[in-house]
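yo, P pilus assembly protein, chaperone PapD is done. seq:
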Amino acid sequence: MKRVLLLFFLLGAFLIPSTYAQISIAPTSVFIDQNGIGSVFITNPGDTPQEVAVSFVFGYPGNDSLGNLLMVYGDSIRENQHGLGDRLRAFPRSFILGPRQQQTVRLQVRPERSLAAGTYFTRIKITSNPQTTDVEQVDTEGVSTQVNFKFDQVIATFHKVGEVQTGLEFGEITTEIKENALRVITDFTVTGNSPFLGSVTATLKNTQGELLASQQQTTALYFSGKRAIELGLEKQLAAGTYEIELLFETKRSDIPSADLVQSPPISEKITLTVN
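structure:
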């Protein structure tokens, strides 16, 4: 008897190391231009044809009560306020991508004159899996098993309308020392009408101004909440007073400055006392 067992595993993009991805996508964030046009380049670096489908889902980075990053989906209120909705379309939406071939997916945002100024956004979900073999073409006697992995990769898409601004206001900043790490948690609120996309640099200095630790990471802050950054410590901090500085800037190595909504650098300093 000839039978083919097809197993499909749907894996979120945040669970998949890039080394296992079946296709590659560029850029990692898409900014629709003033004419409402954008592009995504999808490449198949392997030897197997891939079935690719493009769809959209509204989501944004959020956080839990400890400042840990998590994705928020299903927020219908903010989707109505800030989402691109059905104004965003992709061409083509599905296709077969042959080995070592590239497909350009064109994005188009339908204009809407009644929109308030601001940055509107959503997520592009690009699903890929190896092209399946027709059952009648399987010649193996007995039972054969074909395992196909289906991958979802999700990237952010933005469209700026009118005059856009962004900034940050901070509330309480708390710290926690655990083992060989200093964790700094900030309460933040995004000001203006656009997400704050950029980077944050945290530094730790002693009273003599000597740099003891530093950490830089990209950041994407959309509304309000808590966000944590962790500094590694080479050794346990001695009793005394220290200064922590957080520097937020609207610049990232993976996004051109012209695409980012700009803000002056924002610095927050707090004193850390170790007993």
